[in-house]
Write a sequence for this structure.
């Protein structure tokens, strides 16, 4: 691969934050590339780095400030503009000892508008120095800052990992549970529910009668058949269909219903359809399964089946909605669809509901939006006193999706009472339209 095709990482930031020091760290003893790309100044420092086995082109924007306009921000901007344009990733350095300056904030605003991926670095954070500034750096709205020390070589390995993870076509080796971005391939869907809720019937209706009654082919047992459905958005893979059939054949007693079998199905799925026999209303076991879905962090659609056999539909719908609202507050707003798996009436509403909740499950809220809301939420209801002292909550950031997971930073944040956490989670759900998916809120205390 020639140098022009390597992924480009650009180091930006105001003078003296340690860009050149970091550049030298990343490049090590590797040869600097002489650039003759159009638009790239000759004296821009460029080099090739090896990170986790990948060759990466690193551009240092330091030292170009002199020739540019007179405000500091103007100089930062003009020295970085071209480089940022061609960057696959921008490393935005701030000085964790000096703290966030107005020039940093101004530059961050500009950088955010460039639409390039940015990794925020709090440099000069050797030892424990700079924790406050690192925290302050959240306010730049560029995500979680990574603390490091270019001079002392601290955090460089982690930085390289973070860089490689953000580059295009970087090989991904994360387990499914840790997935942060949606993987390629079909959406994985599981159908669970108590025995006799109508899971097999639903499966039959979804995939078509004839495929279900096909006997096992040579070398392939019926239980192993993977089922792919198609809708206008692409493929949906039904996982654990073997489990449904097995459980349908064994006439299990309700109380012996295998929760562990459901957990297996949940782990393989991204979205789970919880099938409920609407003629029986919502049972404690249905709620148990819903809580399992919440605990495993999956997206959920509730399917009220046997709607053909329900006599008073509006009363039934209301009664079930009330029960869910009270009993499953931690997943408020779960989509509910009603249908008859037996006749097929209404089953066409299921996959659109699945797609929709899948999008919510994958949702990302920017740190800027999040903290604008967060400030208002704090104003409306002050955090409570704990041991006579008010907790000081500072910043919030979304660390992952699938399900949406947020981290709240603040002094003694870990002492935050559950009621206040619920207040924040409900606010997040409403403000950022996250109905029907688990929301995680983690506390991170600072001194
Ligand atoms: P640039 O011009 O913004 O690229 O910054 P330099 O790389 O020239 O560094 C500016 C100053 O900060 C130099 O005196 C460096 O030795 C110092 N420096 C760089 N990285 C660190 C660090 O991690 N910790 C400390 N304490 N100083 C650093
Ligand atoms: P599973 O144990 O969850 O797989 O449930 P089945 O699919 O085996 O269905 C249990 C019983 O409910 C069977 O007798 C089905 O015919 C019946 N059933 C399933 N779906 C419906 C439906 O939509 N309406 C009615 N009236 N009966 C249904």
């Amino acid at each position: 691969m020639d140098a022009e095709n390597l992924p480009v990482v650009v180091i930006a930031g105001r003078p003296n934050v340690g860009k050149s020091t970091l550049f030298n760290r990343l490049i090590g003893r590797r040869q600097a590339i002489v650039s003759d790309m159009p638009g790239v100044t000759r004296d821009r420092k460029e080099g090739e780095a090896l990170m986790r086995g990948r060759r990466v082109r690193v551009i240092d924007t330091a030292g170009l400030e002199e020739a540019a306009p007179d405000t500091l921000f103007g100089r930062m901007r003009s020295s970085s503009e071209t480089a940022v344009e061609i960057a696959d990733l921008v490393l935005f350095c701030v000085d964790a000892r000096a703290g966030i300056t107005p020039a940093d904030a101004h530059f961050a605003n500009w950088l955010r508008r460039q639409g390039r991926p940015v990794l925020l670095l709090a440099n000069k954070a050797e030892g424990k120095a700079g924790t406050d500034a690192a925290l302050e750096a959240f306010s730049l709205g560029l995500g979680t800052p990574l603390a490091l020390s270019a001079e002392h070589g601290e955090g460089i390995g982690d930085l390289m990992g973070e860089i490689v993870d953000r580059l295009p076509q970087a090989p991904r080796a994360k387990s499914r549970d840790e997935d942060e971005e949606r993987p390629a391939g079909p959406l994985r869907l599981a159908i669970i529910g108590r025995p006799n809720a109508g899971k097999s019937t639903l499966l039959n209706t979804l995939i078509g009668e004839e495929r279900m009654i096909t006997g096992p082919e040579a070398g392939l047992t019926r239980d192993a058949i993977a089922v792919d459905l198609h809708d206008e958005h692409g493929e949906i893979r039904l996982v654990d269909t073997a489990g449904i059939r097995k459980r349908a054949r064994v006439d299990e007693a309700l109380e012996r219903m295998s929760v562990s079998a459901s957990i297996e199905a949940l782990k393989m799925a991204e979205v789970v359809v919880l099938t409920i026999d609407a003629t029986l209303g919502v049972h404690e076991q249905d709620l148990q399964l819903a809580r399992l879905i919440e605990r495993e962090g999956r997206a959920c659609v509730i399917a009220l089946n046997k709607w053909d056999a329900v006599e008073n539909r509006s009363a039934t719908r209301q009664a079930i909605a009330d029960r869910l609202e009270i009993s499953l507050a931690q997943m408020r707003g779960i989509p509910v669809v009603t249908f008859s798996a037996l006749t097929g009436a209404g089953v066409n509403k299921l996959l659109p509901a699945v797609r929709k909740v899948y999008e919510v499950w994958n949702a990302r809220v920017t740190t800027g939006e999040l903290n604008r809301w967060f400030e208002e939420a704090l104003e409306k209801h002050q955090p409570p006193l704990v041991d006579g002292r008010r907790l000081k909550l500072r910043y919030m950031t979304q660390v992952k999706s699938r399900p949406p997971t947020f981290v709240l930073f603040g002094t003694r944040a870990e002492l935050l009472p559950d009621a206040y956490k619920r207040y924040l989670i409900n606010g997040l759900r409403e403000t950022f339209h996250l109905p029907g998916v688990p929301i995680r809120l983690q506390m991170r205390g600072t001194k």
